[in-house]
Design a protein that fits this description.
The chain has 254 residues and is an alpha/beta fold. The chain is 27% helix and 25% strand. The chain is built from 5 helices and 12 strands.
Length: 254
């Protein structure tokens, strides 16, 4: 999920980003709250913190007002920077208008735009191109977060015919992830099922009772917009068009 962090006086910048971002909603849901909404009461604060917890990409619309906001400065920014350091979130920060960002914890992070003029200081005919560049960086971050991370610790390990709750991924899926396997002696991929967002495991089947011990099986996982029909034990043909795909690992049937 994309979380947009901005100060209420910069609502026009938020609107411009939201409009440019619209075609990218297929890559991730979008949410924004301004600091002004905190004044509505504690429920707003809890709602914002809940969305911060779910966010995988944060877009920061940076201005002098951004740093003047106590809620952004004391709550949102420290929390987002902590998630960024832990590797669970990518920060894309946008220099919207001049600020003393160098004097803040945001200073060491590279901005989404080349050093120089902020968007507000750019000629009007160049601002749309700048917002497009920002959105492309957000897309890249979303795709990188979406790509399934195969559990490389499986490489070379042995598995039974039916591997219950096999940890296929090394980190939780961020969206529906489809898992496939194929044997060494075949080019056919067999659909094993899906791993839902937030999960890493799936029960997989490696061959049948006639499969020889020592047979190798390859595992791959993808994200896709296509619906995978019930295969009834048959290989998946044609193979679905993927949005992103993991690396592959090879395991050995016991």
């Amino acid at each position: 999920m994309v979380f947009v962090c901005y100060s209420h006086p910069n609502g026009k910048a938020r609107d411009k980003f939201r409009t440019m971002f619209s075609p990218l909603r297929q890559y991730g849901s979008y949410m924004d709250f301004s600091d002004q909404e905190i004044e509505a009461g504690d429920l707003w604060k809890k709602a914002i913190l809940a969305f911060l917890e779910k966010a995988t990409v944060a877009v920061l619309l940076v201005t002098a007002e951004f740093f003047d906001s106590e809620f952004i400065r004391e709550v949102e920014l420290p929390y987002l920077l902590k998630k960024h350091r832990e590797g669970s979130l990518t920060i894309v920060w946008v220099p919207v208008s001049p600020s003393l960002h160098e004097e803040t914890p945001l200073g060491p992070l590279q901005a989404a735009l080349p050093p120089g003029k902020t968007i507000k200081e750019m000629p009007k005919d160049k601002r749309d191109a700048a917002w497009k560049t920002v959105c492309q960086q957000v897309k890249d971050a979303l795709v990188a977060r979406e790509e399934p991370a195969i559990n490389t610790a499986l490489e070379g390990t042995t598995v039974p015919r039916r591997a219950q709750d096999l940890q296929v991924l090394s980190r939780p899926a961020t969206r529906r992830t489809e898992v496939f396997i194929r044997a060494d002696n075949s080019e056919d991929w067999y659909h094993q099922g899906l791993i839902l967002a937030g999960r890493m495991t799936l029960t997989c089947h490696f061959g049948n009772d006639k499969t020889k011990s020592g047979t190798g099986f390859h595992i791959r996982s993808i994200t896709t917009d296509e619906v995978i029909p019930q295969q009834h034990g048959k290989p998946t043909k044609p193979f679905p068009k993927s949005r992103t795909e993991s690396a592959r690992v090879r395991v050995i049937r016991t």
